[in-house]
Amino acid sequence: MLDLGKNQFSPPVSPAGEFTAGSLLERLSVHESKRLIFSYEGRDVLPGYHVTEVKDAVFNAIDCGGNPEQWRETFIQLWDVPSENGEGHMPVDRFLAIMRKVREQLPFDAGAKLTFEVSDGQSAIKLFRAESFLADDETVSVRLLRRPASCKPRDRWLEPEKAKSCCSGA
């Protein structure tokens, strides 16, 4: 298992520079007794947050260059609400138990792209990716950043002539 040490940000581990579900769960597994806090848009989730859904999806698409695309993605939906009983943030071991239960009924690809859907129940769901991981003596913080749109052909450019195929509709 990974030893992150005290107050050490851990970088993402996938080739795309993002945490996968498997890499996040692996890193959490050595911190089971701590509280898990997700942060987004400059603030922490409220202590009563819930994991309301975990989804496994396979996407088939055509990108703006006319190229077929296929990928697998795991979605973890967080409901950002206050605590009803005054408890603190969810313990890591509870989050891991939720994910184990999900995995028993819905085997997901541990290496799949990981997206967090976050809403307070009033605002529309916003999409995030796990950007960094910070562990100290009592808590684990996972910083979430907005998941931006991208142009896959542009992202794959290896040669200048590939730039001409982006968004051409041909």
Work out the number of β strands. 8
**First-to-last CA distance:** 48 Å
* Main sheet record: 8 strands, mixed
In the predicted model, the low-confidence regions spanning at least 5 consecutive residues are 1-12
Number of domains: 1
Question: What sequence of helices (H) and strands (E) makes up the elements?
Answer: EHEEEEHEEEH
What's the Cα radius of gyration? Answer: 18 Å
Strand content: 35-45%
Bin the helical content. 10-25%
Q: Overall 3D geometry?
A: globular
Q: Kindly state the mean pLDDT as a whole number?
A: 85
Structural class, judged by helices and strands? alpha+beta
How many helices does DSSP assign? 3
Q: What are the main properties of this structure?
A:
single chain, 170 residues, alpha+beta, 3 helices, 8 strands, 15% helix, globular, disordered N terminus
Topology:
Blueprint: E1 8-10, H1 21-28, E2 35-40, E3 43-44, E4 50-62, E5 68-79, H2 92-105, E6 113-119, E7 126-135, E8 139-146, H3 152-155
Parallel strand pairs: 2-8, 5-6
Antiparallel strand pairs: 1-7, 2-3, 4-5, 6-7, 7-8
Explained architecture:
- The protein is α+β, with helices and mostly antiparallel strands and 170 residues long.
- The protein is 15% helix and 36% strand.
- The chain is globular, with a radius of gyration of 18 Å.
Provide a concise account of the structure shown.
The chain has helices at residues 21-28, 92-105, 152-155; strands at 8-10, 35-40, 43-44, 50-62, 68-79, 113-119, 126-135, 139-146. With 170 residues, it is an alpha+beta fold. The chain is globular.
